[in-house]
Automatic annotation (TrEMBL):
Residues 1-15 form the signal peptide. This is Beta-lactamase-related domain-containing protein. Residues 403-418 have a biased composition (Low complexity). It comes from the Eukaryota.
Length: 497
């Protein structure tokens, strides 16, 4: 889990704003943040609040790394994950403004060069920037995410999207896609003859004075005041201290460069406040009269392009360009709401309900059940080892492992980590496109477990070999890659070939 990042778009309260109400709202928000830290809901929080064009509060709570207990401040830099998407949309809007008409949101993504060909040549030709940024291209949402996890680079991943069948007809549905946005963003910086990282710096971070912000992982690593990613200690393999189940443990850092426009920004609360001021100022640099972005391309990012669906209350929600878009109805409304049991402790009541939901959610992680008590033994390693291939994944090598983990069918690997190359009853690697090796732990006969996130014991998924008449594997299904059929690979060469 990433550290919580709380960003208030604007103070909202009924009635006329007064200084007293503003300070009350700030006090309430900061109290909630401190309570979240005190209860171990998160290890650290940073907050920025903008009101009437000015930053009225910024601060930090808790720690940025539980192993060092260094304080979380408003200048602590953290990896922003999907908040990168509206930032990247802002960067494109700034590039459109600076292009003097040569760029627009309706530009073709795969022109003049094919950045990310799709399975249908017509879609590849027709795909526009706004299709990628609004998640309506029809691309299967997790396409590319799985390949990134295995260490493939951005250009390779984008070139492989053409081998993934669409999940919706073109522009007929909404599917959240990191690499749909990435393709559109990279197309834009390519047209400006720049890398995406340089474009982000020149068109947004530099002009706004966002000196702690970057779209480069290498830049993030240079920040001395940076936050680590954390996970609940109870989800770490080998963890047994049930009395400290709320403890957070740092897990290192994730390199998201391959999908930088969609998930690779790092920033601080103070820098994000400047971006928020730019948004609320409709493109004018904060505390100046200088316009960085024209209103038209900026307003397009906030305009509904795709219907996401309806909430449980029947309210339709939309997606713009990198932004979720929701409208609240104005006017008169009558709504009777009898409240029985006035003496009930409603806070405790709802806490119990939400606690049940959280337990159900945490129990719904991908898994393939309890390990068998008496598993059938695996075949000799030679029955599985060799090269496997499909167009989406490319070449995958299965090799004999060093048995650094036992084949006790516990489904976890406590002695190896992603990219180490050690352990496992078998290993898989990608010799042409990645330098990472992953252990496979025997589960039952021809089924093995794969954990591409070894810091967590909840990320285990099956790898299943199909055995031919000669007693050797003919295909393998890697479940982590098989969300839309991309995880079935044919054996093309065994180790004796």
């Amino acid at each position: 889990m990433n550290l919580l990042y709380l960003l208030a778009w604007a103070l909202s309260a009924l009635g006329q704003y007064t200084e007293e109400k503003i300070q009350l709202a700030i006090s309430n928000v900061t109290s909630m943040a401190q309570a979240a830290v005190n209860s171990s809901a998160v290890p650290g929080v940073s907050i920025a609040i903008v009101y009437n064009g000015s930053v009225v509060y910024s601060g930090g709570f808790g720690v940025r790394d539980t192993s060092t207990n260094e304080s979380y401040t408003a200048d602590t830099v953290q990896q922003m994950a999907s908040v990168s998407k509206p930032l990247s949309a802002t960067i494109v809007a700034a590039m459109i403004t600076a292009s003097n008409g040569s760029l627009a949101w309706d530009n073709y993504t795969n022109s003049p060069g094919a950045v990310a060909p799709y399975s249908d040549p017509w879609i590849s030709q027709e795909l526009r920037l706004y299709d990628g940024f609004s998640h309506r291209s029809g691309l299967y949402g997790l396409s590319g995410d799985d390949l990134e996890e295995l260490g493939l680079d951005r250009n390779t991943i984008l070139s492989r999207l053409q081998y993934m069948a669409p999940i919706y007809p073109f522009r007929a549905g909404y599917t959240y896609s990191n690499y749909g946005i990435t393709a559109a963003a990279i197309s834009t910086s390519d047209k400006m003859n720049m890398t995406w990282d340089d474009a982000a710096q020149e068109y947004l971070y530099g002009p706004l004075g966002m000196t702690s912000s970057s779209s480069s992982f290498a830049e993030f690593l240079t920040r001395t005041n940076r936050a680590s990613l954390h996970v609940p200690a109870s989800q770490i393999p080998g963890y047994s201290n049930s009395t400290n189940a709320t403890q957070w443990e740092p897990t290192g850092l994730r390199n998201p460069d391959a999908q930088s426009p969609a998930g690779g920004v790092s920033s601080s609360a103070n820098d994000m406040a400047k971006w928020l001021q730019l948004q609320l100022g409709l493109g004018v640099i904060p505390n100046t009269t200088n316009r960085l972005i024209d209103e038209a391309p900026l307003n397009e990012t906030h305009t509904p392009f795709t219907v996401r669906g309806k909430s449980a209350f029947g309210i339709t929600s939309f997606y713009g360009l990198g932004f979720g878009v929701d409208y609240r109805q104005m006017g008169a409304r009558s709504s009777p709401m009898p409240v029985p049991l006035r003496s009930r402790d409603w806070v405790a009541f709802w806490d119990g309900i939400y606690g049940g939901l959280e337990a159900a959610e945490s129990g719904g992680a991908p898994t393939f059940g309890a390990a068998p008590q008496n598993p059938s033994p695996m075949l000799a390693a030679e029955a599985y080892t060799g090269m496997y291939y499909n167009d989406y994944v490319g070449l995958m090598q299965v090799a004999a492992g060093s048995n650094g983990t036992t084949s006790s069918s516990n489904g976890t690997s406590n002695t190896t980590t992603s990219g180490s190359g050690g352990g496992g009853d078998l290993t898989i690697s990608f010799p042409v496109t990645s330098n990472m090796t992953f252990p496979l732990t025997h589960w039952d006969r021809d089924t093995f477990s794969l954990n591409t996130v070894p810091q967590l014991n909840t990320a285990i998924e099956p790898v299943i070999f199909a055995i031919g008449a000669d007693g050797n594997a003919t295909t393998v299904m890697v479940d982590r890659l098989n969300g839309n059929g991309g995880g079935i690979l044919n054996r093309v060469m065994d180790n004796s070939s």
